[in-house]
Specification:
About 70% of the residues lie in helices and about 0% in strands. The chain is built from four helices and no strands. About 25% of the residues are buried.
């Protein structure tokens, strides 16, 4: 539990970047010709994806979590500042 806040930060910023900035779920829906309104949970939902990423990040080495947190936090901040 020592790195709890780091896991929370990494999972949220990764999920936000994945869904809202990179638009990967929208790209997947377009390529697979999903009907409009069909969900691709948990990949198109920041809340759902961040929960699953937090579970995954709990089991990976802390160094990777720090890297992910730094990379996606800077992307998140850069997107909000622009």
């Amino acid at each position: 539990m020592k790195h709890f806040m780091l896991i929370v930060l990494a999972s949220f910023t990764f999920s936000y970047y994945f869904v809202n900035i990179a638009g990967i779920p929208a790209w997947i829906k377009k390529k697979l010709k999903f009907p409009w309104g069909k969900r691709l949970k948990p990949f198109d939902c920041v809340t759902c994806l961040s929960v699953w990423m937090a579970i995954a990040f709990f089991f990976i080495p802390v160094l990777w979590i720090k890297f992910i947190a730094v990379i996606f936090t800077t992307g998140f901040v850069g997107y909000k500042i622009k």
